[in-house]
Amino acid sequence: MAQLTIPLDSARFAKGMTWKDYMAQMGDTRARTEENYSKASLTEDERKFFSGITQVKYVLMLGENWCGDVHRNSPMIARIVEAMPNAELRMFLRDQNVDLTDCFLNNGYRSIPIVVFFDKDWNEIGRWIERAGAATQKSFAIRAVTLDVATEDKKDAAMAEFRKQVQGTYDGPADKSMWRETAKEVRAVLEQRLGLVGKK
């Protein structure tokens, strides 16, 4: 299958929002994202690994303000990029950048967040989409005992409970937080694509 030509270059990348600008325009989900950003810290081992990644120059993130996976996972992505010495992050809204989004479909879906790492020549190093696999399994388990069993008149309350419990999997003890899974998966993508597997 031919590699899609990604419609992204330095000029377009520069028009994206910095992490700070992205949070500033978020509206009613800003407080949740800022709180997650304050909690989503890297472990010493994670910081050491990501600070050694010098090949990544540009990091594209596509999201939308209303998306729970975005306000839960984008803060950890921001922390990861901050640790990389040469990397620059720019945020783009998915629905205003469909040409970009459609280069990174997830089994045919426009799942978000989409995170793509590029080198200085715009070669794609790797991508990470939506949420960690462990987080997907956990959210399915939570859904089964909240939303899936709620009667029609209790759907709103069930949705609120579902969101609260999913967020709790990130807010839990730092060593068990779903942010560890996010960092682990992003690390695995970079290790594999940069040939670092098995190297210390």
What can you see in these coordinates?
The chain is of the alpha+beta class. It has one domain (about 10-130, about 175-195): Glutaredoxin (3-Layer(aba) Sandwich). It contains nine helices and four strands. The chain has helices at about 10-15, 20-25, 30-40, 45-50, 70-85, 100, 135-145, 155-170, 180-195, and strands at about 60-65, 90-95, 115-120, 125-130. The chain has a four-stranded mixed sheet with strand order 2-1-3-4, with helices on one face. A hairpin with a 5-residue loop joins strand 3 and strand 4 (about 125-130). The longest helix is centred in the C-terminal third of the chain and has 17 residues, at about 155-170. The protein is globular and about 55 Å long. The model has no long low-confidence stretch (mean pLDDT about 90).
- Helical content stands at 40-55%
Which stretches are poorly predicted, pLDDT < 50 over at least 5 residues? none
CATH architectural group: 3-Layer(aba) Sandwich
Structural class: alpha+beta
Q: What's the Cα radius of gyration? A: 17 Å
Q: Tell me the name of the CATH homologous superfamily.
A: Glutaredoxin
How many DSSP helices?
A: 9
Distance between the termini: 34 Å
Largest sheet: 4 strands, mixed
Shape: globular
CATH class: Alpha Beta
Q: How many domains is the backbone divided into? A: 1
How many β-strand runs? 4
Brief overview, please?
The chain is of the alpha+beta class.
Short descriptors:
single chain; about 200 residues; alpha+beta; Glutaredoxin; four-stranded mixed sheet; 9 helices; 4 strands
